[in-house]
Amino acid sequence: METIIVETKQELGRKAATTGAELIRKAIADNGTANIIVATGASQFEMLDALVKEDVDWSKVTAFHLDEYIGLSDSHPASFRKYLKERFVNLVGIKAFHYVNGEVDPVVECKRLEHIILHHPIDVAFVGIGENGHLAFNDPPADFETEDAYLVVNLDDDCRRQQLGEGWFPSFDDVPKQAISMSIKQIMKSKSIICTVPDLRKAKAVYQTLNSEISPACPASILREHQNALLFLDHAAASLI
Question: Cα–Cα distance between 209 and 211 in angstroms, integer?
Answer without folding.
Answer: 6
